[in-house]
Design goal:
- By secondary structure, the protein is mostly beta strands.
- It has one domain: Porin (Beta Barrel), CATH 2.40.160.
- Helices cover 0% and strands 78% of the residues.
- It has no helices and nine strands.
- A nine-stranded mixed β-barrel has the order 1-2-3-4-5-6-7-8-9.
- The chain starts with a strand and ends in a 7-residue tail after the last strand.
- 22% of the residues are buried.
Length: 208
């Protein structure tokens, strides 16, 4: 099985570097594709989102996140019965959005843990096409069908990473982390992702 994965996360957070009253804003996107070398099955996923949070105490930021996600699954197979051969191609497409809370806590220096739990809606479309060859007929018969449904969706993510400050002014850093994501719709899927982020510290709210 061959897998190709890419994820980029861009974060802009407020001045104060993990301190109380700091505002955090982030945007991110991911893409992954998987192909089974032993069959014609393939899976393609993407995720984009925006988060905004606030450090209620030093090192702990809470806020809200909104995500858009997509999943494409394609499979091909064939079966035989006496004097008949049938080839089938199926395509499942899921598109979803979710809104919900997130929290990030810095354990030590730049080491952090983060969790997200989002609720939303998804639309799932299924397309199936089959071609049947029956002996002694020389002209095959084909059947095409499609269906769509809308359902509620949930997205849960939890992970850990490290924020590395790269400028002398301490207003720009790079985050590297690993996250486990579980997306529940009528088609549920999960997996690990490696996150890369760029973080800027811009301003701090004037509160006691």
């Amino acid at each position: 099985m061959k897998t190709c994965f890419f994820l980029f996360l861009l974060s802009i957070s407020a001045y104060g570097q993990f301190s109380r009253n700091t505002v955090l804003i982030s945007g991110f996107g991911s893409y992954s594709t998987e192909k089974n070398s032993e069959s014609d099955n393939s899976t393609e996923q993407f995720l984009v989102g925006v988060s905004s949070g606030y450090f209620i105490i030093n090192k702990l930021a809470v806020g809200a996140s909104i995500n858009w996600a997509g999943l494409n699954q394609e499979s091909s197979y064939a079966f035989e019965v006496p004097l008949q051969y049938t080839a089938v191609n199926e395509l499942n497409e899921s598109k979803a959005w979710g809104l919900g809370p997130f929290a990030r806590y810095y354990l030590f220096k730049g080491l952090f843990v983060e969790a997200d739990y989002l609720f939303g809606k998804s639309k799932v479309t299924n397309e199936t096409q089959s071609v049947t060859f029956t002996y002694p007929n020389t002209i095959p018969s084909s059947i095409y069908s499609t269906s769509a449904q809308e359902t509620k969706s949930k997205l849960f993510a939890i992970g850990a990473g490290y924020s590395l400050i790269v400028t002398k002014s301490r207003n720009l850093g790079i985050d590297i982390g690993v996250f486990y994501r579980y997306h529940e719709t009528s088609i549920s899927y999960s997996g690990l992702s490696v996150n890369l982020s760029i973080t800027g510290f811009l301003f701090q709210t004037k509160m006691p």
